[in-house]
Structure to design on (87 residues):
């Protein structure tokens, strides 16, 4: 009798779990306004190119500074190695 009650309870539980579930209410989509017109492409391209040139110039300067610092560090390491070998 216990086994029959257990099987019946599991059957009832499985039927309840597999039953039809209520659907979520439909969500209304908001109305989207048209975007503002884009600026003139030629002016935007010229401005972007100018900014790119400035950024490239800054990168060249930074690379030069980094190369100088690396050379100085290499010289210092070389001198330190020479001093260590003398001792």
């Amino acid at each position: 009798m216990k086994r029959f009650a257990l099987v019946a309870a599991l059957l009832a539980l499985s039927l309840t779990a597999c039953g039809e579930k209520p659907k979520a209410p439909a969500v209304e989509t908001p109305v989207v306004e048209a975007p503002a017109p884009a600026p003139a492409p030629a002016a935007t391209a010229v401005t972007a190119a100018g900014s790119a040139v400035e950024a490239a110039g800054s990168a060249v300067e930074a690379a030069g500074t980094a190369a100088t610092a690396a050379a100085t560090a290499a010289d210092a390491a070389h001198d330190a190695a020479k001093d260590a070998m003398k001792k």
Residues 44-87 form one domain. The mean pLDDT is 79.
